[in-house]
What we know:
With about 270 residues, the chain is of the alpha/beta class. The chain has one domain: Rossmann fold (3-Layer(aba) Sandwich), CATH 3.40.50. The chain is built from 9 helices and 10 strands. It has helices at about 30-40, 60, 105-120, 140-145, 165-175, 205-215, 225-235, 240-245, 245-265, and strands at about 10-20, 45-50, 80, 85-90, 125-130, 150-155, 180-185, 190, 200, 220. The strands form 2 sheets. Strands 3-4-2-5-1-6-7-10 form an 8-stranded mixed β-sheet, with helices on both faces. A hairpin with a 5-residue loop joins strand 3 and strand 4 (about 85-90). The longest helix has 23 residues, at about 245-265. The two termini are about 25 Å apart. The chain binds adenosine-5'-diphosphate (ADP).
Amino acid sequence: MNIEKEKTNDVTHIKNVIAIMSGKGGVGKSSVTSLMATALRNKGYSVGILDGDITGPSIPKVFGINKQRATGTETAVNPVETATGIKVMSINLMVDDEESPVVWRGPVIANTVKQFYTDVNWGMLDYLLIDLPPGTGDVPLTIMQSFDIDGLVVVSSPQDLVKLIVKKSINMAGMLGVPILGLVENMSYLQCPDCNKKIHIFGESKVPQAAAETNLKIISQIPIDPNFVTLCDEGRVELYLKENYTFAEEFENQIEGMVKGIQKSFKFC
Ligand code: ADP
């Protein structure tokens, strides 16, 4: 099923769909999705997050909306809004107990993600970010094949940046004809709180090598920061950029530059 045509309907008008993927779990894909959504919201855009990581959903928790439940009618569901007005749809907003595992097979999971797109009242959105399940398995494959994705962001940790696992994700996107906006290196460095020096705790940055080998743009390098984990655990991820002005200014501009690239490369040319 190709759901391109359903991107606009009576209650939903989504201008751009951006999918966020990673070669494997634990590299910070969901965290980067949350930060990107916050950056775009801070820049004044209307933003939604579709939590496509059905078996490991973490978006509601980092925004502190995990105790809320999505409401709706028999035909459509309303997303839950975060403190700053980011609209979120996640399986954890629908199940009775967020700690119960979702024991579903791939096709059921992929269909649920599709319904999160077609049967949710997203309203008017400048950007819908899809947090894809990690890896290159059945579910990300189906989502990438059936959604009209305007751009893909690949998230990696420094250790994996030049490894096969990232290249597999990039190659999969290439095979499916999904345009890649670039790479985000998460947990890239540690900023010394005293002298502000960037310490590359995983060794020299592989960013130049990765950019050369993949021919992709490095969108951003995000530091490893214990305060970020604390805010995520407390459900207050939206405060991170507000509390880190210097990083926030750079990051918000990088993300806005990235989305402007979508319009230039894929929409108006
Ligand atoms: P994924 O979605 O790739 O599985 P998550 O976004 O859930 O990964 O992140 C995994 C863990 O790493 C979480 O506990 C998260 O808070 C932490 N984390 C992610 N990015 C950072 C960062 N830049 N600094 C510190 N901790 C981070």
